[in-house]
Specification:
Strand content: 15-25%
Largest sheet: 6 strands, mixed
Number of helices: 7
Structural class: alpha+beta
Helix content: 10-25%
Mean pLDDT: 89
Bound molecules: zinc ion
CATH architecture of one domain: 4-Layer Sandwich
Order of helices and strands: EHEHEEEEEEHHEHEEHEHE
Shape: globular
Length: 253
């Protein structure tokens, strides 16, 4: 579906190049689709935005989340989520329960992975030949703990996926332009060998470094490079002190 200016979501200019028919006419959905992942065998790889409403688990209205899933060709009972606690635990996706964890993996086509974010990195992993996926919540704590490596290990141990078979996408999140922490946090990040300039930490580069250190090929890692704090278009805890959340969704074909 061609997009015109009227249908374009409110967002920073970098968003335009990665949008793929972002709104459906039926639901007026503004979520981002990641077409490269679809090319490699993902049925859905997307992130909702401000215009999609509040997709937090405790949102007062479940309609925005249900509309998003319908627009993705999914039913609400197919979405597996976790109670995110800023750790690095990874679980096999099960839509019937919601354990404490910050990453999900699956090889099932009838289950979609979901995590919620508002500045934290949604990290998408896809192994097309092994028919397996992971979706990770990589905020400051998760990145400091190397949740990328934890997700890659889980895929390897559970489904036999070698890291070199993976594609990765680092979604819209707090960018190095804006993500300022206190001195101790920045120093802690540096001590872990992760990039920080003064009090600003770089979650995008940190996750990229961790992915390549774990064995991913550089050319298979895509960073969307849209900052949710200054770029607009998404719920941002830092920019708006909001409890509202964007929903990241990943599902296999
Ligand atoms: Zn920024």
């Amino acid at each position: 579906m061609p997009m015109d200016g009227k249908n374009r979501p409110r967002a920073g200019k970098s968003l335009g190049s990665i949008l793929d028919a972002a709104r459906t006419t039926r639901y007026q959905i503004a979520m981002l689709h990641f077409p490269k992942f679809a090319l490699h065998g993902a049925r859905v790889a997307a992130l909702s935005g401000c215009d999609d409403g509040d997709c937090a688990h405790n949102a007062p209205d479940p309609a925005p989340r249900e509309c998003l899933l319908h627009a993705c060709g999914l039913l609400p009972h197919q979405l597996a989520t976790v109670r995110q606690i800023h750790g690095i635990a990874i679980v096999q996706a099960d839509p019937t329960c919601r354990p404490d964890a910050d990453g999900l993996i699956t090889n099932r086509v009838d289950v979609a992975l979901g995590i919620t974010v508002a500045d934290c990195v949604p990290l998408y992993l896809l192994a097309p030949e092994h028919h397996a996926i992971a979706l990770l919540h990589a905020g400051r704590e998760g990145t400091r703990g190397n949740i990328a490596a934890a997700g890659i290990t889980a895929l390897q141990e559970t489904y036999g996926v070698p890291p070199s078979a993976l594609y990765a996408l680092i979604g819209p999140s707090a960018g190095p332009c804006c993500y300022e922490v206190d001195d101790a946090c920045a120093e802690d990040f540096r001590q872990a060998g992760l990039p920080a300039t003064g009090r600003r930490i770089d979650l995008w580069e940190a996750n990229r470094l961790q992915l390549t250190a774990a064995g991913l090929l550089s050319e298979r890692i895509e960073i969307v490079r849209h900052c949710t704090i200054c770029g607009g278009g998404f719920h941002s805890y830092r920019a708006h002190q909001t409890p509202q959340r964007n929903l990241a969704i990943l599902a296999l074909n």
